[in-house]
Amino acid sequence: MRRRGAVGWAGFSPDGERVLTASQDRTARLWDARTGRELIVLRGHSGDIWSAGFSADGARIVTASEDKTARVWDAERGCALAILSGCSRSFISADGSRVATTSNDNTARIWDLAANAALTGDTAEVMAAALTNGRGVRTRRERADADAGDQC
């Protein structure tokens, strides 16, 4: 598996059959884990891709970029299903119905993909987030005086 830009993220699909990479060349790529053959190139971001991941069933991929968007992709066809604005990192829920995002604008949001709408969230210098059992998002803040792991 050879890439043109530096790879900032790589991970296996839930079934271990595919590898997803995200890169500074503004693409994410899906590879066959056994042969190393490139399967799909996900294009659309206008900046480096900083994070990527699969839904638990492997049907969807989410990427987030320095272009301040997160994109949800169909993992079989490579087409964009949703574009979410104001994001720099993203995490997809186990069932693929929600995406949690964090941003340098001090926000964490949960996006309902069916409604294509954001639910408001944390607004203190958010550095990381994770979905918690589908009920909320746990965040980690940069400021030393903030509680780590606040739930919004």
Describe what this molecule looks like in 3D.
There is one protein chain. By secondary structure, the protein is an all-beta fold. The chain has a single domain, classed as Methylamine Dehydrogenase, Chain H. It is 0% helix and 54% strand. It has no helices and 15 strands. The protein has strands at residues 7-12, 18-23, 27-32, 38-43, 49-54, 60-65, 69-74, 80-85, 89-92, 98-103, 107-112, 117-119, 126-132, 136-141, 150-151. The strands form 4 sheets. A 4-stranded antiparallel sheet has the order 1-2-3-4, with no helix packed on it. It has a 4-stranded antiparallel sheet with strand order 5-6-7-8, with no helix packed on it. A 4-stranded antiparallel sheet has the order 9-10-11-12, with no helix packed on it. A hairpin with a 5-residue loop joins strand 1 and strand 2. Residues 122-132 and 135-152 have low confidence and may be disordered.
- Which structural class should the secondary elements be placed in? mainly beta
Rg on CA atoms, Å = 15 Å
Number of domains: 1
How does CATH name the architecture?
A: 7 Propeller
Strand order of the largest sheet: 1-2-3-4
Helical stretch tally: 0
Sum up the overall morphology in one term: globular
Following the backbone from N to C, one meets helices and strands in this order, namely: EEEEEEEEEEEEEEE
User: In terms of per-residue confidence, which ranges show pLDDT below 50 for 5 or more consecutive residues?
Assistant: 122-132, 135-152
How many extended strands?
15
CATH class membership: Mainly Beta
Helical proportion? Answer: under 10%
Task: Give the overall average pLDDT.
Answer: 75
The percent range for strand residues is over 45%
CATH superfamily: YVTN repeat-like/Quinoprotein amine dehydrogenase
Largest sheet: 4 strands, antiparallel
